Amino acid sequence: MPAHLCSLGKAMLATRSDEEIRNLYSRGSFETLTEHSISTLDDLCEDLNTARVRGFAFDNQESHLGVQCVARAVQGAQGRILAGLSVSAPSVRMKYDVFAEAVVAVADELAELLQYHKP
């Protein structure tokens, strides 16, 4: 699964700078799986900036129609990615704010349990 099409991939990409993202995706071709898939570098950078601000990434039916996901990277003290945490649900059952709050809380707790700083 391409990272730009799923919340966990986008959560991990969001830990990188826009410059790094532009270098990673410099070939300009984006695989799409649904009509909701991110298809341009500018759209990806905008989505990653939103993820950085809110503290988690969101997949709104970008890889599978009828499925939404929220995710957060679990980072170590120097920002190194140690793990990722994601929750997926059918769109009709996704309670975006509840799932996002839970993912952020559990990811932060996991980082603390591993004796690392919050991202």
UniProtKB/TrEMBL annotation:
Matching InterPro entries: GAF-like_dom_sf (IPR029016), HTH_MetabolicPath_Reg (IPR050707), Tscrpt_reg_IclR_C (IPR014757)
Residue span(s) of domain IclR-ED: 1-119
Xref: Pfam families: IclR_C (PF01614)
GO biological processes: negative regulation of DNA-templated transcription
Gene Ontology molecular function: any one: DNA-binding transcription factor activity
PROSITE patterns noted in UniProt: ICLR_ED
PANTHER family given in the database record: HELIX-TURN-HELIX TRANSCRIPTIONAL REGULATOR, ICLR FAMILY (PTHR30136), HTH-TYPE TRANSCRIPTIONAL REPRESSOR ALLR (PTHR30136:SF24)
Protein name: IclR-ED domain-containing protein
Organism whose genome encodes this protein: Entotheonella factor
